[in-house]
Design a protein that fits this description.
- By secondary structure, the chain is mainly beta.
- It has a domain of 91 residues: Beta Barrel (OB fold (Dihydrolipoamide Acetyltransferase, E2P)).
- Helices cover 10% and strands 32% of the residues.
- The strands form three sheets. It has a five-stranded antiparallel β-sheet. The protein has a two-stranded antiparallel sheet with strand order 5-6.
- The longest helix has 5 residues.
- The chain is globular.
- It starts with 25 loop residues before the first helix and ends in a 14-residue tail after the last strand.
- The model has no long low-confidence stretch (mean pLDDT 93).
C-alpha cells in the first residue's frame, strides 16, 4: 500500500489486519525532517481526483511556508485554519493535479482510511523538530 485510500467497506487500515513493517533502523528514521507547523491557509482542491484541501503551513523562520495537498476533508477549512500540524519535510515534492505538494502532513489512519491529524499542544513553536 503506497498511498492511503478511504474505503469504508474494505477497512484497509484496521489495526488487527496490519502486519508490522520491517525494521528500517534509527538512521533512516532520523533522516526524515519532521517539524511542527501552523496552517495559515486552506483552499479547496476541486481538481484533485480524491477529495482534498490545499494547505499552506508555516514551519518557522528557517523553513518558511510550504504547501501540501491533504485528503483531510473530514475537517472543515475553519477547523484546519490556525491548527498546529506535524509535517515530514524532506520526502521530495509530488505533482498532484497540477499542484506541487512539498511535504507530507502526518496523521493516524482510521480503519477506513480517514486521516486524523496528529495533535500538538498549542504552545509548541512552529519549526520545532519532532523527536
Amino acid at each position: 500500500m503506497a498511498q492511503h485510500e478511504i474505503d469504508p467497506d474494505r477497512r484497509p487500515y484496521a489495526p488487527e489486519a496490519l502486519a508490522r513493517k520491517p525494521d528500517v533502523g534509527a538512521d533512516a528514521f532520523f533522516a526524515v525532517d519532521m517539524r511542527a507547523g501552523r496552517i495559515v491557509d486552506v483552499e479547496p482542491f476541486p481538481e484533485a481526483r480524491k477529495p482534498a484541501w490545499k494547505l499552506t503551513v508555516d514551519f518557522g523562520p528557517v523553513v518558511g511556508t510550504l504547501r501540501t495537498s491533504a485528503q483531510v476533508t473530514n475537517y472543515s477549512a475553519e477547523q484546519l485554519q490556525g491548527r498546529l500540524v506535524v509535517g515530514a519535510l524532506n520526502l521530495g515534492r509530488k505533482r498532484i493535479a497540477g499542484f506541487t505538494s512539498e511535504f507530507l502532513v502526518l496523521g493516524a489512519l482510521d480503519p477506513d482510511g480517514t486521516v486524523r491529524l496528529l495533535e500538538l499542544p498549542d504552545d509548541v513553536q512552529v519549526g520545532a523538530p519532532i523527536a
